[in-house]
């Protein structure tokens, strides 16, 4: 702890903490809402960029005053070999790592890096003043709505942290003030009682419904888990496939279910939210009506009697009942080749049949 304090005081003018092997980096990641770490190289060719990044980082707290628990750190790759190996591997290039609430959210190793800091700090919560404005949100994505008396309250601060965690998976909206029973609205709440409501995307409404959060809003872990269970899994359709495939950094993991048995979807979402939250950057979890993708499943040698089944990038999970075994399912998510390989993947099927699919939409 003393070394951390000394580092902070030593670099306070620049707003940057020089992290070393004795800085307890794991502790810093867990205790602070946002941690930005720049792994840099010394030398004439990097001097100008390092100075530019110092100036960018120095403005972060000025531009975003609400971020109370923020640590901006730098690691000298020339001297801190242990930290280099532990956090980015044996990579000799500069890298920017951003952690939020202990979880890595961004890793960049290309120039320029400073713009990604501001992208991460942008507020994902959109305010609205009347119910009609909610129609302007994208209904192909989940939406979580918060009702608070004002912004400056601890419950909203927790809501904001959770919104940042899930901004890539869900939309967030907020309305401030008191609401009265005579207001023409389906969203009512008692005065002085913050309320959070989840509204599924239009496709997922077939298997899920709007739900009011019943837990303690001041409990970050509880609200974060609830929101992850609701938002981390989306419904895959023929129409939104291309949009869900935009993120090339993650594999598409699909639960194909029989629409006559949607109860399994709840189990799937609970397992993802409880045990696989740390894999959200690696995998894009979805559910899909197996009968609507019957042509693809038939190519893999399956029919409706094989539902439910899980597929990812051309591999199928060997035994669906093993999803209740955290180790086996996680091994499949981390490396789909744990499963059974098939010649054709969903990506190839959608590509070769896109004209036919579009004509049916």
* Strand segment count: 16
Q: Span between N and C termini? A: 60 Å
CATH superfamily of the largest domain: Glutaredoxin
Which descriptor suits the 3D outline?
Answer: globular
Strand numbers in spatial order across the main sheet: 11-13-12-14-15-16
Strand content: 15-25%
The biggest sheet amounts to:
6 strands, mixed
Q: Kindly identify the CATH topology of the largest domain.
A: Glutaredoxin
CATH top level class name of the largest domain: Alpha Beta
Give me the secondary-structure category. alpha/beta
Q: What is the helix tally?
A: 14
What number of domains? 3
Helix and strand pattern: HEHEHHEHEEHEEHEEEHEHEHEHEEHEHH
Provide the CATH architecture of the largest domain. 3-Layer(aba) Sandwich
Radius of gyration equals 23 Å
Helix content: 25-40%
Mean pLDDT: 80
GO molecular function: protein disulfide isomerase activity
Organism: Microctonus aethiopoides
InterPro entries: ERP44, Thioredoxin-like_sf
GO biological process, one term: protein folding
Summarize the structure.
This protein has helices spanning 2-10, 25-31, 44-58, 60-63, 81-88, 114-121, 154-165, 220-231, 241-244, 263-275, 294-299, 326-334, 346-352, 354-360, and strands spanning 17-18, 34-40, 70-76, 95-100, 103-108, 125-127, 142-148, 170-176, 195-199, 211-212, 233-235, 251-257, 283-289, 309-312, 315-316, 340-341. It has 361 residues and is of the alpha/beta class.
């Amino acid at each position: 702890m003393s070394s951390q304090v000394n580092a902070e005081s030593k670099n306070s003018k620049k707003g940057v903490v020089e992290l070393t092997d004795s800085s307890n980096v794991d502790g810093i990641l867990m205790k602070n809402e946002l941690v930005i770490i720049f792994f840099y190289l010394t030398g004439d060719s990097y001097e100008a960029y390092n100075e530019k990044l110092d100036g960018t980082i120095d403005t972060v707290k000025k531009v975003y005053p609400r971020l109370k628990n923020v640590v901006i750190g730098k690691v000298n790759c020339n001297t801190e070999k242990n930290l280099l190996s532990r956090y980015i591997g044996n990579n000799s290039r500069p890298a920017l790592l951003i952690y939020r609430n202990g979880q890595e959210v961004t890793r960049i190793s290309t120039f320029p890096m400073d713009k990604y800091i501001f992208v991460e700090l942008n507020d994902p919560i959109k305010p609205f003043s009347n119910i009609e404005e909610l129609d302007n949100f994208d209904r192909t994505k989940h939406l979580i709505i918060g009702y608070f008396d004002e912004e400056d309250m601890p419950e909203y601060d927790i809501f904001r942290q959770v919104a940042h965690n899930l901004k890539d998976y869900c939309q967030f909206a907020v309305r401030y003030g008191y609401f009265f029973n005579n207001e023409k609205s389906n969203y009512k709440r008692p005065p002085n009682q913050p309320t959070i409501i989840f509204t599924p995307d239009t496709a997922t409404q077939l298997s899920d419904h709007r739900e009011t959060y019943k837990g303690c809003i001041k409990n970050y872990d509880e609200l974060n888990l609830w929101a992850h269970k609701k938002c981390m899994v989306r419904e895959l359709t023929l129409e939104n496939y291309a949009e869900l495939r935009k993120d090339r950094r993650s594999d598409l993991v699909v639960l194909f279910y029989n629409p006559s048995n949607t109860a399994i979807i709840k189990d799937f979402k609970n397992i993802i939210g409880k045990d696989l939250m740390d894999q959200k950057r690696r995998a894009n979890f979805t559910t899909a009506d197996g009968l609507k993708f019957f042509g693809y499943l038939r190519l893999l040698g399956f029919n409706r009697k094989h539902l439910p089944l899980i597929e990812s990038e051309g591999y199928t999970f060997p035994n669906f009942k093993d999803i209740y075994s955290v180790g086996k399912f996680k091994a499949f998510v981390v490396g789909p080749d744990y499963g059974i390989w098939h010649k054709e993947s969903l990506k190839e099927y959608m590509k070769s049949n896109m004209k036919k699919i579009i004509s049916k939409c």
